[in-house]
């Protein structure tokens, strides 16, 4: 039997797009096809498989159990085909699209990514920094750096860094009250973002149960990195991850008055779709960043 009859590649491509986008209409827009043509191709692949792959509902389609099993394998297959064709064409550069939280991007990734590019000169890195959780099915992103517990359905996740936080401030600000001797002394100063739940966790762990942070003026700056800059400028006490601000400590711009650090169970993770786990550029970045931050996790991938 001919390969074209055994493997309807055009129909599989349509199925992959419809499954990823959750819509026949959007799949048609992406592929330059009418909705009728998309429906026809889906019907062909369903006849080939011998099972329905989608549940048709008004203005919505969802994958059946069979479709859910097939979808990640088809996506992975097309990723491998794309890489094989690029290699056959002799393409010398491929792009790796990274989405990262703003703080991790500015305080670690932007400073270290050059070593990855030196090791992989054929991979062009594109970095987008924001704290929104992106949808891999809707956005052109290869990997993401997220803060959380590591449990995201359909994604492979690797812990990069434990998140532990503690108050930090400028020595000049501490001098305005003489000295910071006890955790309660911090309440004599302006607290940057007093609504941040990290503050409540830290003060309780430090034995201060009546911090009354809710009564203080809110000052949401949007990212830990911005709060750190405000603290360096002497505008208040920020609750930060000390690992990110070693340079500021060494230069005397920030200091950590207490050894106590806390965690809320949310760490930094590298995530990417399970179906794309064998894509060469994703594997290269995974091995590099785990080698830098969590070699034990990397050893488990070998």
Automatic annotation (TrEMBL):
Entry's Gene Ontology molecular function annotations: DNA-binding transcription factor activity; sequence-specific DNA binding
Superkingdom of the source species: Bacteria
Xref: InterPro entries: LysR-type_TF_proteobact-type (IPR058163), LysR_HTH_N (IPR000847), LysR_subst-bd (IPR005119), WH-like_DNA-bd_sf (IPR036388), WH_DNA-bd_sf (IPR036390)
Protein's UniProt keywords contain Lipoprotein: no
Example GO biological process: DNA-templated transcription
Assigned keywords, A-Z: DNA-binding, Transcription, Transcription regulation
Keyword Plastid: no
PROSITE patterns to which the protein is assigned, alphabetical: HTH_LYSR
SUPFAM superfamilies given in the database record: Periplasmic binding protein-like II (SSF53850), Winged helix' DNA-binding domain (SSF46785)
Family: Belongs to the LysR transcriptional regulatory family.
Protein's recorded name: Glycine cleavage system transcriptional activator
Gene name of the record: gcvA
